[in-house]
Amino acid sequence: MKQTSAARTLPAPKWGQSANNKKNGAGEPADKYQEGQVDENGDVNTEMRKKIHCEDGQSESEENSDLAAAIAEWDEVETVTPGVDQQLMGSEGAPNFSKQSQPLSFNEALQYYQTKDLSDVRPLIKTSIERRGFAAFKHFLFGPPKLHRELLQERDMIFCIAASQFNNDESVHVRTLQTMFKHMTGSKFDCKRYGDHWDQIGFQGTDPATDLRSVGFLGLLHILYFVKDPKLLSLARDIYKLSLHESQNFPFCLMGINLTRITLQALREDCINKECNKRRQVVAVVNDLYVGLYLMLYQKWKHQQMTIINSGPVLNDLEHIAKTNPRHVLRNLEAYLQSAATSKAPGSPKEKQEFTFSSLDEAKSGVGHGEPS
Question: Contacts from 203-211 at CB under 8 Å and sequence distance 24+?
Answer without folding.
Answer: 203/251, 203/253, 203/254, 204/1, 204/2, 204/251, 204/254, 205/2, 208/166, 208/177, 208/253, 209/165, 209/166, 211/253, 211/254, 211/257
